[in-house]
Design a protein that fits this description.
The chain is α+β, with helices and mostly antiparallel strands and 291 residues long. It is built from 8 helices and 15 strands. Strands 7, 8, 9, 10, 11, 12, 13, 14 and 15 form a 9-stranded mixed beta sheet that branches. A 6-stranded antiparallel beta sheet has the order 2-1-6-5-3-4. Strand 10 and strand 11 form a beta hairpin. Helix 6 crosses helix 8.
Length: 291
């Protein structure tokens, strides 16, 4: 049986053990998946790139015609309180806001009190073995809905996509729409070509990961080329390196794709030099960009 973490959570003004928290069955998050979420990485008790995560949360809320029930300063205080209740230096703070409770109706009701749910749990980063050897991924058609730019709690498409790779014993499913790279089931995807980092452009099909701007900054600091443009499936299959990025993975090298090694020559099936530079730069950023 999958046991819930033994941690305290926050739900609409009350703190309670996670296993005891209850939400109405008529909450629109439960009925429609009508809500958004964020995951805040915590290092040594400090939140990484909090403002960037809040900006994305507010963008997602605005696209659903919702507003946050708390100001940023209040959410920061709440996150810190939840962090203090967990005995682990590195954590993940999960924040979820739904439209609230109402009779079932597809039309967005007005003036509802949003449901705010949050908790923190110990982080589980990629293992040293995964960092050293990289991970395997599987490719698939991007069959999810058209609004991947919203960090919605409606994640069934992502669940189905992730299960494709789980069934193959792989770490992620890399998705293509009409022959072009979008993202993975729970990660942004990058390729390396001639020493430069390339990623898909911002669009409604791609979630604007907080690490997008971060990697742009890290590439500039490391003297690496950076560009976001349409990337074909053929370019991904022929890439020098493939890299995943997310709050939970940081940056992670993909060394096998569809059971075939990634890369060429001496780097065939091994993490590459661009990944190594970005991983080291990411570790340095954690020390100065956490609050």
């Amino acid at each position: 049986m999958n046991r819930l973490p033994d941690v305290m959570c926050y739900l609409n003004g009350e703190f309670a053990p996670l296993a005891e928290a209850k939400v109405s069955v008529m909450d629109r998050g439960f009925i429609f998946g009508d809500g958004v979420y964020e995951l805040l990485p915590v290092y040594g008790g400090r939140i990484f790139r909090f403002e960037a995560h809040m900006e994305r949360l507010e963008r997602s809320l605005a696209k659903l015609r919702m507003s946050s029930p708390m100001l940023r300063e209040q959410l920061l205080a709440l996150a810190r309180k939840l962090i203090s209740k967990v005995e682990a230096p590195d954590q993940w703070v999960y924040l979820q806001i739904t439209r609230g409770v109402a009779p079932r109706n597809h039309v967005m009701p007005q003036d509802l009190a949003p449901t705010l749910f949050a908790y923190s749990s110990p982080a589980k980063w990629p293992t040293p073995e995964e960092r050293h050897h990289g991970v395997a991924c599987i490719t698939a058609r991007d069959f999810r809905w058209e609004r991947g730019d919203i960090k919605s709690i409606s994640l069934l498409g992502n669940v189905l996509a992730r299960q494709i790779s789980a069934d193959e014993g792989a770490a992620e499913t890399i998705l293509f729409r009409d022959g072009f790279l979008t993202e993975a089931s729970a990660s942004n995807v990058w390729i390396v070509k001639e020493g430069a980092l390339l990623g898909p452009p911002k669009s409604e099909h791609v979630l604007e990961g907080v690490r997008m701007e971060l990697l742009h900054e890290l590439c500039a600091e490391a003297g690496l080329g950076f560009n976001q443009r349409p990337i074909t499936e053929a370019e991904v299959l022929a890439a020098d390196e493939i890299i995943l990025s997310s709050a939970t993975k940081e940056v992670l090298a993909v060394t096998r794709l569809d059971h075939q090694p990634v890369g060429h020559g001496a780097l065939h099936g091994k993490p590459g030099p661009v990944y190594a530079k970005l991983f080291e730069a990411y570790q340095a950023a954690k020390r100065i960009q956490s609050i």
